Amino acid sequence: MYVVGSRLQPPLLKVSRDLHEPTDLITVGCEPQPTSVLAPPPPTITWFIDGRKVPPGMMSKYGHSLDGRYRGVSVNLHGQQVVEAGGSVQLECQVSLGRLLQRTTRTIRVRMEHRSLASAFSRAGLSLEPTSQRRTLSVAVELLLLALLALRNV
Q1: Quick one: average pLDDT of 33-57?
Q2: What is the pTM of this model?
Q3: Which phi-psi region, left, alpha or beta, contains residue 51 (left: φ > 0; alpha: ψ -120 to 50)?
Q4: C-alpha distances in angstroms, 107 versus 79, 82, 84?
Q5: Is 51 exposed, middle or buried (0-12, 13-18, 19+ CB in 10 A)?
Q6: 54: Cβ–Cβ under 8 A, 6 or more apart, which residues?
Q7: Is 68 in a helix, a strand, or coil?
Q8: Beta carbons of 44 and 97 less than 8 angstroms apart
Q9: pLDDT band at residue 1 using 50, 70 and 90 as cut-offs
Q10: Minimal CA–CA distance to 35: which of 43, 26, 27?
Q11: pLDDT tens across 94-146, in order?
């Protein structure tokens, strides 16, 4: 016999931080909240990224309960995937039990690489340490001014 309580609670999402790096492996856990729902069966957990159902290969079992069973399901994303999606994705975890359905959403953000003079120097193998930063920028400004003067005289 299965006894179902009056309500299924929205699931709990667990993530390590709000802003991730492009090199991070991002794991977000989802688990049903304890309720008056008696098992079996446990609620079904379904993940969505930007409204699309997550394929099984991107999910894994998550957390252990006292009886050794898993409490939830996590979704695993590479930070670069989020960068390629524009820097953020909307994750949604749904728990369902029969006709009962609850969901929780979370926006996952990844730091986007900003193109700047400092990053251009870094990519070129040059350093912008505080002692050489002013000198390097001064040389860059001088070169820019010379290039503008050359264009003006053409």
Answers
A1: 82
A2: 0.66
A3: left
A4: 13, 11, 15
A5: exposed
A6: 47, 48, 75
A7: coil
A8: yes
A9: very low
A10: 43
A11: 999 889 999 999 999 999 876 555 555 565 566 555 555 556 667 777 777 77
